Amino acid sequence: MTLVRLATNPSVERAGIGAIPTPICYGHRGARGHAPENTLLSFALAFDLGADGIECDAQLSADGRLLIIHDGTVNRTTNGRGLVHDLSFDALRQLDAGGGQRIPTLDETLALVGERGGLLNLEMKGENDAEALAVAEAVAARLAALPDDDPLRRDILASSFSLPAVAEIKRRLPWLRVGALFGGRAWTRQQMIERALALGAEAIHPHPRILTAETVRAAHEAGLRVNVWTANRWATIRQLIAWEVDGVFSDFPERVVIARRLGQTRDRQTGR
Fold it and tell me: 25: helix, coil or strand?
């Protein structure tokens, strides 16, 4: 079995450099293991460490502006307190997100990804489906403004645990690549695949604890990609590569890059 494949899905073909080796490495909230999560510093560091793309989380301020922050509150990741959706854009931007970093805007994040020529997995967050749907509507409005020839149209993958939000953004932007997030053990292999196909998703995004080699094979047979969150242990990363998943999200993106390269080296040495 080939441990490292080249991505053949046209959506990840990159102008001028061919296909990205798989599994695609996404820095989870940037390089969260090394820098304050979901900050421009963390995103830039992930690319510096060799990540092919970054993953980040979009939410709305009280006045309807899109920012990048994971939790429903600012308590854990900033020097402030309160619910994200209760705080104004200006108030959120005044907070320290770690090391003097500010909470980034979606526009700032898109600009950085565009400058680096990388991929972006944009997760639409919400404490419930209604909040996630509002984020999906706002993200759709922003992405709709991208010029037809903007590489970001090809390089963005939108995802959410809120499957109604995934369905809504796909309805609004049929050209946008979307993925369905799954975390609970209640999800069966068949349920994940069926729901993703019904949404018009290109991928399922399961947690490692609910993933098996059989699920990867079944998803691939159904025409779906498999992007896995969040893998930080070397053993887990190596197992996912052996299962031939398509993407891995990691707080330590350099580990995925190293493991992927070691797999390529072993393949060359063994002639596989």
Answer: strand
Query: Given this model, what pLDDT does residue 264 score?
Result: 82
Between the two ends of the chain, the Cα-to-Cα distance in Å is 7
The answer to whether 113 touches 157, Cβ cutoff 8 Å, is no
Contact 52, 26 (CB under 8 A): yes
Q: Go through the domains of the chain in sequence order and give each one's CATH number.
A: 10-54+134-270 (3.20.20.190)
Residues 132-178: tens digit of each pLDDT: 999 999 999 999 999 999 999 999 999 999 999 999 999 999 999 99
Task: Output the six-digit token pair for 28.
Answer: 């989870």
Identify residue 207 by its one-letter amino acid code.
Answer: H
Whether the bond between 36 and the residue before it is cis, its omega within 30 degrees of 0, is no
Residues 6+ apart with CB under 8 A from 243: 211, 213, 216
Distance CA 139, CA 169 (A): 8
